[in-house]
Amino acid sequence: MELNPTQLTPVINRQKRTQGQLAAVSKALDPAGFAIIATGLEQCIVQKDASMGPKELEKLFLSLA
Fold first, then answer.
1. b/e map 10-49, b = 16+ CB within 10 Å
2. Rounded to two decimals, what is the model's pTM?
3. Where along the chain do its domains lie?
């Protein structure tokens, strides 16, 4: 099957826009995730009875990566 490149141009453009939007969302959400991690780490350092241990914090941190 041979596809006409000019017919695919709108599809390719839409895909590029979608990728740009996803990148923008990720860039906007990353600081919020890092703030959550920083708060959790701070609580673990300050409070000896923090509800999240190192393994839980690591899992949370890796979920943001």
1. eeeeeeeeeeeeeeeeeeeeeeeeeeeeeebbeebeeeee
2. 0.49
3. 30-65
